[in-house]
Amino acid sequence: MTALPAPVRAPLSAPEVLARCRESVRPALEEAVGRLHPWVAEMAAYSFGWCEVGGAPAAAPGGKGVRQALAVLGAEAAGADGRAGIPAAVAVELVHAFSLLHDDIMDEDATRRRRPAVWKAYGTGPAVLAGDALFALAVETLAAVPQGPGAVRLLSAALADLVRGQADDLLFTSRPCGGPERVTPQEYRAMAEGKTGALLGCAAALGAVLGGAPARTVDALDRAGRHLGVAFQLVDDVLGIWGDPAVTGKPVGGDLREGKKTFPVLVALGDPAAARELPALLDSPGRRAEAAALIEAAGGRTAALAEARTHTAAARALLAGAPLAEGAGGELLRLLDFLVDREL
Predict the structure, then answer these.
(1) What global pTM score does this model have?
(2) Considering only Cβ atoms within 10 Å of each terminal Cβ, which end of the chain, N or C, has fewer?
(3) What is the pLDDT of residues 14-32, one digit of tens each?
(4) How far apart are CA 54 and CA 114, in angstroms?
């Protein structure tokens, strides 16, 4: 009797890829968080949407798990089982959670994913402590793998870039809107690559390292992730001004309230007519809707999305030039397009 060929699995959509990777990582992520001090573990679980304040189980909205997916797909792209990338996925997710806890405090954002931010729910000091614990746990997680020294160095380099990007993002708010001291698009790109791209690139690269990939593949995934990070931040900028809070989980006009020099704002400030009116609108709490309309009329929204797609194309080119396993390579490409087109 002739054996039938094995069924071919239909390609997964990007949301299905994210769900598959989240499900494979969550047990290890929960085990890692469970090693923390119980109070700190509760704050971490709250930040992930697993519990309410006090520890009662919850199914609150969590993140998409983008960094988790990149780590698992990085291992699979190297030809390994996706489980090889799980320690990398846990580590980068812990670092991402740590950065969000501190980010919300620095930006004074009271909500995160339609719930009180950790610092509002537990207090500023406890939230800082929880973030520090998550960072330490991430390093511990990577140090335990056979490739530990190299993996920790890769994570440390990404963290240094993340801090530089975050510092620039904070400093940009105090820069003038015009003149030679104003923030340039080039400075913005460097900030976005550090603040967002470094950890996305690190996630994919760490997964590839744990999957046994050659240096060429690791480098291509790191650089592609950095381009994706810039595109992701550009889309975040658009959502921060025009996004629906019911969908994004972020306060409407939050970036305008904080005076952030996001890419759409920089584009508008480069238009002489808009630049004359926009600074006054940004300084007036009751006129932020007018500011958003002026930024859009000056081309800020369109330019930001076009720039995002330019970086997506650069990421696609890097992935196309790397020797990636076919299935994972295709899922990485679908993920790129999905993340740039999200909620727009």
Answers:
(1) 0.91
(2) N
(3) 999 999 999 999 999 999 9
(4) 18
